[in-house]
Amino acid sequence: MLKNEEIDQLTGLPNLYSFRKNAQNLMDSRAKTEREFAIIYFDVQNFKSYNSRYGFEAGDRFLQNLAKHIEKIFPELMVARFSDDHFVALAYFSGIEARIEDLRRRVISYNPDAGVDLHAGIYELEPDDTDISMACDKARIACNSIKANYDNIYRYYDRELGNQLDLAHYIIHNISDAVLNGYIQVYYQPVVRVISGRVCGFEALARWVDPKHGFLMPGVFIPILEDAHLIYKLDAYVIRQVCEDIREYMDHGYKPQPVSINLSRTDFHQKDMYRVVNDAVSVNKIPKNLIHIEVTESALDDNQDVLKGTIDKFRRGGYQVWMDDFGSGYSSLNLLKDYEFDVLKFDMKFLQNFGSNPKETAIWENVINMAEEIGIQTLAEGVETMEAWDFLKRVGCEKAQGYFFGRPMSKSECIDYLDEAKGNERPSKTAMEEDESALSHNKNIIELKNEEPEEDEIDRIGTIEDEQFMAQSPVYLTLAARGFVSLLEYNSYSQFQKHSFFIVANLSEDKLVRLHLSSKRKILDKEYHRQESYQEMIDDIVENTVIDEEKRNVEEFFSKDRLILAYHSGINFDEIEFHRIVDKKMAPRWTHTIYQIIEEEGSIVAYFLSFDIDEYKRSKDLVRQMAERDSLTGLYNRHTAVPLIRNRLYRHHGGKSVLIMVDVDNFRDINDRFGSFAGDEVLRRISARLDDFFGRDGIVCHIDQDEFLIFLENIQPVNIEDRIVDLCDNIFSLRYHDDKITFTVSAGYVIHPDQGRGYHDLYRKADMALCMAKNAGKGTAVRYSEQ
Length: 787
Description:
By secondary structure, the protein is an alpha/beta fold. It folds into 4 domains: 4-157, Reverse transcriptase/Diguanylate cyclase domain (Alpha-Beta Plaits), CATH 3.30.70; 183-421, TIM Barrel (Alpha-Beta Barrel), CATH 3.20.20.450; 443-618, Beta-Lactamase; 629-783, Reverse transcriptase/Diguanylate cyclase domain (Alpha-Beta Plaits, 2-Layer Sandwich).
């Protein structure tokens, strides 16, 4: 009997660790039999695209189905799921090729339109083989060697592949020397803002320039080091080198950009990675916000307690944590409720058909919208064309990376790249000096003095003065560019200026330096002037113009003491959105505020830009609602409802819930007899009734065609059963043109947690119950039963 930690939770097969232990025992005892053994390593081709096209639940069902077929075709010894779509079998050699071909036919026939395929690597165990891990590696190498070859579905491990294994041995035994002798070099690939194309960071990538084997790519040595649990040596070196490079960059007077660093799953078990990173940051005296930690999604499947603890520690310590390769696994959305991330990073290969596949596009639009709703940024890597960049702009992705923007480059090439992009100009003057220089050339500008000019003079000249100052202020233009998405709602730049607030404050002296508060220096009925207390003005603004529910957050955001503390902690930029009272007779409006802090002549100076985004928020809410709702019925669509249901199941704190699957009886006949438009009207009618029956209490979703899903919490089983039976007892009717259409519905349902716990389990059982109801006749409701 296998222990729970030895079982893959999705498929029920043994996991990698269990397989290695038990297969090793079988291997050691094979001398007692004359049968020949073989290791077969299976890899599903295009499975990531399958997940992207059909959804993660469908991907789960695919893997569960594949696991059953592998067990059925290779029953004699042992099979296991190693990771993602990778399975391994220890089997007798007899008939192995025919059995692989049989398995491949079953994989393809599961969904012929999906474009998935199966490859296998075979290693026939030799009499002197003693290490099961080495045997698995050989089978894996054989399988990986035909990944791009669609003519071959399997390959045996041979001499050519043996040379690859020799290289693996070389890498394992020489990684320490490579680090010490500088053979490992850190390259940097730029990350840009999608909306502007401006560089906003880099990803650190390792390259191995070896005196014997030449230039080794990461795809060669990283998997080998991970399997050997030696990747921590490489990653620790990269961390130290990145911090040293940033320090050197800052010492030469350049403004540094954040750098993201990849950590492997095995790092977390080999070393205290938080201490490794934090020590390197402390030794080089660089701000923590310049180092971001990337963790691949597949790493999160492994020993969640250790990983979660370390990830939480990084975030508490002031580091951003990114999920790399989002969407590659079978539980991407589930992970978002268990972990907190700052950025989701996905590969454009998931969106290779964005121009021709609306479903694929819709899935990722919803993913991006969902991430934004829960406060996570999105980054697309692998961007190689203008079309891909334009697509990312349309769907709202925030950051991008790829050869279209820049290839991975050495440190010196990186500096040249930034110089060409004008992303790291050395400031010959402070921002304040540049502003004063610009002002001195305009005779209409009032000089800053301790005494205040006359009120009418401010009213007459203030607007011109401030707008000229804003137009020539590099900090203002920087802040405006950062808020560019929201600015699109304005008809012109001048209109934006008239509806924005620009404030410059000397935080060290608690003084207002410059104000642009709309056409006059008034907020509601209160006037403000230069040299007044910044903190007193903020207190007044918060008290008089911010809604009660948001006052505390806004007050903290603008707090002088908090801003100074943040600056000394390395944070010189932040933003907030809140509701502002423009007119006491009108509803509050959404406002976006962004700031940047600069040290000038020994004082800490903050630049604030606030602007109205109410129309933008309203249109965005409308777009989100359209994305969440099924266009035909107005109910939640599947992509929105399923995460909501999962979340409620996760937050379950007692009581009973029910998952109900409803189907329109003989819907195909209705379509055939009255036409598809009549069928649409039937779906609208039953959707409205389902919303009336259950919408106030729970989640009602249009899954597909004539199927609906309902989730209700805190129910009494007897009462809910009566409601479901009442629904199915109804004979619904509607008039369509000159025809009267009558129809009934059937339902299957399952009670949580009595009959199931996870979403997949509940869905499967509700579906089984619905099948039983359909078999029993029209207008029938059936509760799931094990019998």
